[in-house]
Design brief:
The chain has 115 residues and is mainly alpha-helical. The protein contains 2 helices and no strands.
Length: 115
């Protein structure tokens, strides 16, 4: 019996003609095709993974921001040390001395820096 079922499955798998999905007595597909089910399962898993990753990243970034605020409070008005190899500008960018990714909370404002 299993040989006959296996042979039938192989014929359906390798045939070039599409096979109609199995239907119940009402003519409606029983559970959809397996490919539809797999696609739906993958979509749900992907969305769940994105939500978990977003929550984890938000938590880590909040901890990092709190730590940086603590360091800023500890340091007070004392400026960061200036090293000769940091923030070098041979010539200004077309839009000014700061990069496109300039963040005033983190980066030094090069338009106000002495040359």
């Amino acid at each position: 019996m299993s040989f006959a079922l296996r042979r039938l499955a192989q014929r359906r798998l390798y045939s070039s003609t599409p096979v109609a999905p199995p239907t119940g007595g009402s003519g409606v597909a029983a559970a959809g095709t397996p490919n539809e089910w797999v696609a739906k399962r993958n979509a749900v898993q992907a969305h769940a993974a994105l939500v978990v990753a977003a929550v984890y990243t938000k938590r880590v970034e909040d901890e990092h921001h709190a730590h940086m605020e603590h360091l800023k409070h500890e340091r007070g008005d004392e400026p960061l040390p200036e090293y000769s190899y940091m923030n070098k500008r041979q010539k200004p960018f077309p839009w000014g001395m700061n990069t496109l990714f300039f963040n005033p909370e983190v980066n030094k404002d090069m338009s106000q820096a002495s040359a």
